[in-house]
Structures are given as structure tokens and as C-alpha cells.
Automatic annotation (TrEMBL), chains A, B:
Pfam families: TetR_C_11, TetR_N. PROSITE patterns: HTH_TETR_2. InterPro entries: Homeodomain-like_sf, HTH-type_TetR-like_transc_reg, HTH_TetR, Tet_transcr_reg_TetR-rel_C_sf, TetR_C. Residues 12-72 form the HTH tetR-type domain. Gene3D superfamilies: Homeodomain-like, Tetracycline Repressor, domain 2. It comes from the Bacteria. Residues 35-54 bind DNA. The keyword Transcription regulation applies. This is TetR/AcrR family transcriptional regulator. Keywords: DNA-binding, Transcription, Transcription regulation.
Length: 198, 198
DNA sequence: ATCCGCAAGATACGGTCCGTATCTTGATTG
DNA sequence: CAATCAAGATACGGACCGTATCTTGCGGAT
């Protein structure tokens, strides 16, 4: 968009305006046609300003996505492992929807050829989400006696997010029915098979 | 690469030469730098020849990947559900490795904005693989009495491939340890929790 | 209040690749 | 051997790349 003739944005305000422009541009033309030139134009700035901060459309997209995902959230305590896990999956789904299927896949594709970006994304987002959210839920379940701590492996902790991610990546959306299927047919059986008391 | 001065390829031979060139080019420069121009040059042909068949690098990549994945294979009968499932996961992993992490993600990203291509990929490859492979394995397990047919849902049938795909997409490789984890901590518990006899 | 430094913003550049049109030439068919 | 059709070569305008250069406004320091 065009801007006021006299008003030069700087720092945080400028950066946020650019990331907003990235999002608008992305929704309008899609990721494959997301260009530095187009974003600059829409943000009312110029390419050099973008290149001083990000070196490619993918980096822009990642920064944009990161800026839109809420920093930290906790899973509400519903009183049961099943309820908490539904809440966890729903929350994870919300976060993924914010980013969007295409953006997520584009970022993953980029990351698959960029070991540096991979660490940021995998450890910073994937593990962050898995551990922070699942950690809370499972800690409560263990405290309640619904789960045996010694059988809670890394893989089981990752499982809910893994299933959700897979579903989201394939289909772009995950309805409540799918969540219940994952929960009742896979997650809870797997958790309980390893020494749970309930 | 350059070719004989006098020898004009046509039809199948030409097509295969192009797809081979796509693969070489992809491995050398990566998908993000895979251009029609580069492929044409490497295949010793010209852009119009490519555009007559495929309309973009992504379509080229999909065609290339499809040409490299073996048409149909069956999972060997190892005598047990566990052994068969390991074989199934290993086979799925082999197929994914043929395509490669980056190519797979790039195709999924493309498919996420192209409903037409989505049907081809999801139904033709994902479901194909899931149902063909899992179908065989589970049918044998049911015949052996290791599994109760009435509890084998769509989602449980998809589960092994889903887990494998998720792992492959995130990390680009899946070692034997990961396969055993998925199997013993998730797949088998989920299957057995739903009325299995063993 | 004034000056200075710094980054925003504008502009321009060569370069690559896009997607298409046109033309020639080799191979295939009958 | 003639007719046909696609391979292959070439050229084109256009979009976007990534960078260099220049100015101009903003903000902090004296």
C-alpha cells in the first residue's frame, strides 16, 4: 500500500508493518509468488530495507509466522488426561492454523536444505511445542496417578503433536472427529499400554 | 549434458532422459534452484520440449519422483504382526528415501495450493501406499488371529505410514531404532488395545 | 536549538529465469 | 519417397533477483 508522504518508520514499527505486509501478500498471491519486491511495495518500503533483515522470501515467511504464533500458552487443566490431551491437540491445531498448511510446508521444505534453519525450527518450535505442552499435560496426569512416569518416553511425549502435524500437513485442517480418533485409537491406548493405572 | 550431434530422441526415450536430468539437477542444485532452463540444458533439449509436457518445475519434480518409485511391491510374510510391520515400515522408508525429504515436502507444499494435484498425490500415493501395504499386513494378522478385524479402523490402518511420514518429513531419515520405537511404543499397543488376542 | 550519524527509502543496474512464439530440421508414417 | 509432426534452436518481453549508490528524514548527542 502507499503511505503518508512525511513519516519515516523505524525499528519495531517498521518491522511489524513489513511482517503484516508479508502476511497479506502471502494470503493474496500464495507463497510461491511471494517476492521481496511485492512485499516491499505493499509495505510501502523498498527491497534494501528487507534485505537488511532477511535474506530471502522463506526467511521472511518464517519470521512472519513466528510473529503470529502466540509466545507461550498453557494447556487448561480439565481434570482428566483425556480432557487435557484434547485441549492440547486443540491448542496445537490452533497454532498450526495460524501459520497455515502451505506456509508450514514451505518452511519445512526450506529447512530440509538448510541445516542452520533446521535447528531453529525443529528445536525452537517443534520441540518447544511438544515439550512445553505435553510436559504440562503429562506431569498432571502422573500427579493424578493416571500415568506411570517411568513409561513415559520421548516418543510418547511427542506423539500427540506428531499425529496432529501429520494430519494438518496432509489435509490442512483437522476436525474434532479426527482429534477424538487420534486420541482414543492411538494416543491413550499407547500411553495406557505402558503401565498406566487407569 | 551435451549430446550427439545427430540423433533426435522422441517419445519415451526423450521423456526418460528428461526425468533423469531432473533428478541429477535436483541433487546438484536443490529444488529451489531447479529451473526449466537448467533441466533442458542438462537433458540436451530445450524449454519448449519441457513445457509441452509439464507446466512447472514442481510438475516436473512430481513426474520425476513418480517415475522413480517402484510400481507395486508386497510386504514379505515374516510370520508375525510385529515382523510384518517392521517390514512394512522399512519398505515405506525405502520409498520415501527414493523420493527424498526435500522433494516430498516441495510436492506437498505445491499440493497444498493445488486441489487438482492434491487428489493425485493424496489418493494416488498416500492412500495407495497405506492401504496396499497395511492391508496386506493386517489381513495376514487377522488370519493368524493376532488381530481382531472389527477393531481395525481406517486410522489404525494409516498409522504406520503416518508415523513414518512424520518422522521422515521432520528429520529426513529414520533409523532402525526409531522404527522399533514407533512399533513397540505406539503401533502395537494401539492395535492390541482394541481387542487383539495377542 | 543545532549538528551528526544512521538507517529509511528511492532508484538503477546486470543478471537469471520465466513462458511463449517462431523457425528449421530430423524422424516417423504410409 | 513424400508428407507430417514433434524435436530442437533461438529470440523475445517481462518479472524478479540481489546489490550499489544516493538522498533524506529521524533521533540522539552536545
Amino acid at each position: 500500500m502507499e503511505r503518508k508522504a512525511t513519516s519515516r518508520r523505524r525499528g519495531e514499527a517498521l518491522e511489524q508493518a513489513i511482517l503484516d505486509a508479508v502476511w497479506d501478500e502471502f494470503r493474496e498471491v500464495g507463497f510461491s509468488k511471494l517476492t521481496m519486491e511485492g512485499v516491499a511495495k505493499r509495505a510501502g518500503t523498498s527491497k534494501p530495507v528487507l534485505y537488511r533483515r532477511w535474506s530471502s522470501p522463506v526467511e521472511l515467511m518464517i519470521a512472519c509466522a513466528a510473529s503470529r504464533v502466540p509466545k507461550a500458552e498453557s494447556v487448561p487443566d480439565t481434570g482428566t488426561l483425556r480432557g487435557d490431551t484434547i485441549a492440547l491437540l486443540t491448542l496445537a491445531h490452533e497454532r498450526m492454523r495460524i501459520v497455515g498448511q502451505t506456509a508450514m510446508l514451505s518452511m519445512l521444505a526450506q529447512v530440509s536444505v538448510d541445516p542452520e534453519a533446521r535447528k531453529v525450527l525443529i528445536e525452537g518450535i517443534v520441540n518447544n511445542l511438544s515439550k512445553a505442552l505435553s510436559g504440562t499435560v503429562y506431569a498432571r496426569a502422573i500427579a493424578r496417578g493416571e500415568l506411570a512416569e517411568e513409561h513415559l518416553t520421548e516418543r510418547l511425549a511427542r506423539l500427540p503433536i506428531d499425529l496432529m502435524r501429520n494430519e494438518f500437513i496432509l489435509f490442512g485442517h483437522v476436525d474434532a472427529g479426527a482429534i477424538e480418533e487420534m486420541l482414543d485409537q492411538v494416543i491413550l491406548p499407547a500411553l495406557r499400554a505402558r503401565g498406566a493405572t487407569v
